[in-house]
Amino acid sequence: MAFKALLVSVLAALQVANGALIRRATCSDGTVVANSACCVLIPVVQDLQTNLFDGGECGEEVHESLRLTFHDAIGISPAIAARGQFGGGGADGSIALFEDIETNFHANLGVDEIIDEQRPLIQRHNITTADFIQLAGAIGVANCPGAPQLDVFIGRADATQPAPDLTVPEPFDTVDSILARFSDAGGFSAAEVVALLASHTVAAADHVDPSIPGTPFDSTPELFDTQFFIETQLRGTLFPGTGGNQGEVESPLHGELRLQSDSELARDSRTACEWQSFVNNQAKLQSAFKAAFRKMTVLGHDETQLIDCSDVVQTPPAPASNAHFPAGLSNADIEQACASTPFPTLPTDPGPVTSVAPVPPS
């Protein structure tokens, strides 16, 4: 009986393994995928890398494509829907499909530029706008040294109506309102909000302060590293909450911009220790952002009804920097916010204090 049971178990395991092998497919370019439906993405990925991301750079188009994934997906509110005021939203492509409406929302200022750059690529391929926006973000991030290999799904239906206004958090929003907005959109915890903000390590601002376009949020905007979490903890000065500087905090690094919301989240008792935990912890940065991005990218959808095509995403380059203080700064310049754990001791870059260069425009 024991031998018979063992034989049955072995045969069952072989059937499962054989089924898994049957489901795998080799696309025309030789890429092996777990589901043959994902082969349709191979030419889309090639088009993205060649014609949007300049052959695989971690530059402005990557920053803006990643920003667009968030601005599309977060535009969902079960609380609004429950009141019968609005349904739908989430990662459904509405921000591009209803560009004339959603790009006029104050929080979406400037996203029309990347929408217009992506549109010709979408038109060349058999893919929904909803799927394309999230795919472009994941492929772009994978060009950045130190980034995680993000998950990609296809099968989202395109939006039939625009997302509601006032669902995208803004730099001058309070921590209370930001946490509440994320909780409403998808049940995101405070820790997941901090993880999603790791996207600012490869980001720059063009419209927060129009007088200084392309201003990065940390000193290494071409690297997916932990510098953002270090440099937001440096002492800074809040600008007045009016005019072009609304939502902006002065950074001690010339040429670097700090969002008011990032500054406050880095210092709030609900998020400060989680924020600090990313400092010099590349592995956590990668895993936490990967998990939070996956959750965001399927907002408004049942993940079990989508097709996992994560194996079309290239392996990102290895991390290319070590956590450090910029030249002329040290632990003495940190505004300690986590009450339970000291800020890590880090080396300081040698040499004179230098300015952070703006991110070149596309």
UniProtKB/TrEMBL annotation:
It is an enzyme of class 1 (oxidoreductase). Its EC number is 1.11.1.-. GO terms for molecular function: heme binding; metal ion binding; peroxidase activity. CDD domains: ligninase (cd00692). The keyword Iron applies. Ca(2+) 1 binds at residues 72, 90, 92, 94. One of its GO terms (biological process) is cellular response to oxidative stress. Residues 66-342 form the Plant heme peroxidase family profile domain. Transmembrane segments: none annotated. Disulfide bonds join 27-39, 38-309, 58-144, 273-338. InterPro entries: Ccp1-like, Haem_peroxidase, Haem_peroxidase_sf, Ligninase, Ligninase_C, Peroxidases_AS, Peroxidases_heam-ligand_BS. Residues 340-362 are annotated as: Disordered. The keyword Oxidoreductase applies. The active site is at 71 (proton acceptor). The record marks 67 as: Transition state stabilizer. Its cofactor is Ca(2+); heme b. Belongs to the peroxidase family. Ligninase subfamily. This is Peroxidase. It comes from Ganoderma sinense ZZ0214-1.
